[in-house]
Amino acid sequence: MNHLNLLQRRNFVFCAPLSWFALILCVSVHAADPAPIRAGMIGLDTSHVPAFAKIFNDSKAAGDLAGIKIVAGYPGGTDMPASRDRVKGFTEQLRKMGIEIVDTIPQLLEKVDVVLLESVDGRIHLEQAIPVIKAGKPMFIDKPAAGSLADVVAIYKLAKERNVPIFSSSSLRFVPGIQGLLKNKELGEIVGAVTWGSCTYQEGTPDMFFYGIHGIEPLYALMGTGCETVTRIQTEDTDVVSGVWKDGRVGTYRGIRKNNASSGAVAFGTKAIVPAERGGGYQELCNEIGRFFKTGIVPVAPEETIEVFAFMEAADESKRQGGVPVSLASVLAKARTEAAAKLAK
Q1: Exposure string over 140-177, b if 16+ CB within 10 A, otherwise e
Q2: Does one domain contain both 148 and 205?
Q3: Average pLDDT over residues 210-237
Q4: What is the CATH number of the domain that holds 222?
Q5: Whole-number pLDDT of residue 32
Q6: C-alpha distances out from residue 15 to 7, 10, 32, 33, 116, Å
Q7: Is 178 left (phi over 0), alpha (psi -120 to 50) or beta?
Q8: pTM score above 0.85
Q9: With contact defined as beta carbons under 8 Å apart, do 62 and 130 qualify?
Q10: Whole-angstrom distance, CA of residue 247 vs CA of residue 275
Q11: In the predicted model, what is the mean pLDDT of the chain?
């Protein structure tokens, strides 16, 4: 992104040279009341779209959300039922909120400073992200970052080459219960964690990418990077995916497809074992997005997001191989080769 142009648009205004006092007053008033950051949404086929729009465009928005306004949206959509059957309804909700609906991504990019890529179908994220990155617009990518590990690697590779800040995350990474465990001094050092939640699949993408990521993101928030191998057990109703970190710690995700599938987490510390408290929603994630749009500082490092998706891809490979441990290095090596080929086209 041309960050200088954005800063100029937001912080500077022409002042006629009436006097030094008038000039100082004009600049001071403008600096205190900068133009809002114009945000656009790509992919209007998820409930996140109206929920996020209401949070950002709330007239009482404060703190990291103040001064950011969603002004345009591009519907997009695919043949996936979760997309095909909902895009019209969510698009109309945004239209009724006064948000302009455009026909193409290039049209959207002409009207906005920053982008939220919301398409529920991760398989089209690479295609949709490329023009945003080439236009230099900072971007948040809703879960999943993409529909394959290779596509995730390609998106982050292109963003790095173009020096464009992007990040992706599930909202559950930032809920108070997970953040509270990270700040809990009674735990001591976290030496292991278990997370769980709903784990329905989306045909055409690795099993964990659709809903499993909502439990695996918090697992990584607690454990950090450094997982070396992943083993998966799958039954009709349940997935159990365990990773061994390079320092010997173990982190496990339990994916549930039947019975109670509410999400949760437990952290194992050197001093105590503590469950995460319930609560939280989209507000915490939107706060992080707002801070990111204002500062350009990503709250989740690219390396961590890539490893999250390598963890999930390794879980699929473990299933294919009958439940044997699979190294993240092996799936990443393959994905990097595929990503380079995709970007070379």
Answers
A1: bbbbbbbbbbbbbbbbbbbbeeeebbbbbbbbbbbbbb
A2: no
A3: 97
A4: 3.30.360.10
A5: 52
A6: 17, 15, 15, 15, 34
A7: alpha
A8: yes
A9: no
A10: 23
A11: 91
Tokens of 51: 């929920």
Instruction: Give 105's Cβ-side CA count (13 Å radius).
Output: 22
Q: Same structural domain for residues 40 and 125? A: yes
Record the tokens describing residue 108, joined without a space: 């959207």
Q: Are residues 164 and 263 in the same domain?
A: no
Same domain, 88 and 34: yes
Mean pLDDT of 169-173: 96
Q: What is the pLDDT of residue 33?
A: 58
Number of domains composing the chain: 2
* DSSP 3-state of 270: coil
Q: For residues 149 and 16, state if they share a domain.
A: yes
Spatial contact of 58 and 52, defined as CB atoms under 8 Å apart: no
CATH number of the domain enclosing 92: 3.40.50.720
Cβ–Cβ under 8 Å, residues 212 and 257? no
Token representation of residue 334: 């393959």
Task: Give the model confidence (pLDDT) of 108-145 as tens digits.
Answer: 999 999 999 999 999 999 999 999 999 999 999 999 99
Tokens of 125: 């994220």
Give the domain range for residue 116.
Answer: 3-170+286-295
Contacts of residue 318, defined as CB under 8 A and 6 or more positions apart, other chains included, come to 230, 231, 232, 241, 324, 325, 326
pLDDT higher than threshold 80 for residue 10 = no
Do both 228 and 120 map to the same domain?
no
Residues 103, 21 share a domain: yes
Cα separation values, 109 from 39, 139, 179, Å: 9, 11, 34
Integer Cα distance of 193 and 132 in angstroms: 36
Of 97, 95, 94, 91, nearest to 77 (Cα)? Answer: 91
Shared domain check, 179 and 38? no
Q: Could you tell me if 256 and 282 are in contact, meaning their C-beta atoms sit under 8 angstroms apart?
A: no
- Rounded Cα gap, residues 194 and 216, in angstroms: 9
Take residue 208 and report the two structure tokens written for it: 């964990």
CA Rg value for the chain: 21
